[in-house]
Amino acid sequence: MELPKPIKEFIEFISQFPGIGSRQATRLAFWLLHQEKEKKKKFLTISQHLLINTQICPNCFFVSERKKEKSQTKSLCEICSDRRRNPSLICVVEKETDLLTIEKTNKYKGLYHILGGLISKIDENKKQALTINQLILRIKKSSHSSQPVKEVILALNPTSEGNLTSYLLEKEINKLNLNIKITKLGRGLPQGSEVEFSDSETLINALLGRK
Ligand SMILES: [Zn+2]
What we know:
The protein is α/β, with parallel strands linked by helices. It has two domains: 39 residues, no CATH class; 123 residues, Dna Topoisomerase Vi A Subunit, Chain: A, domain 2 (3-Layer(aba) Sandwich). It is 40% helix and 13% strand.
């Protein structure tokens, strides 16, 4: 038996989502098909809003809502444009959900930089897809401003990939010769754990005791 093509296509696509396998995608497809017309419509509109009405911050690569009136110009995200936050402090994270976990602690008042992934030994090419160059440029540019970056916190998972990425980032930042303090959050987290799933207390301790 072959599934109808539209269902097959949906399942194939949704199976690529993080944490979703083909079984879950199949259940999701049938669940959606059984919903009332209004709910189906809502699914289409919110998906469209997610993809069209958001934009990536040119500074830190976090997302923000695209304001309709200035849809052509990329504006800074809520965090980067918050003047109460300390622009001399940049916390480098792998992905958006890590940022959200750190924000939940309410203890971090600097800015962020989203790398978009980690470097692994087997896939060194991945380096090109990450926002490492943008981070270096951001630090360099800030050195000519009134609020230069003074500390970079590497908040990457304490895994082999996270450690390799931290090592390479540290090397790149030191090459700038700007006397930037580099600290690591990972040292305060259990080996092999993930920033995203760390509890607030552990993260706060790691933040306060960062070295
Ligand atoms: Zn931003």
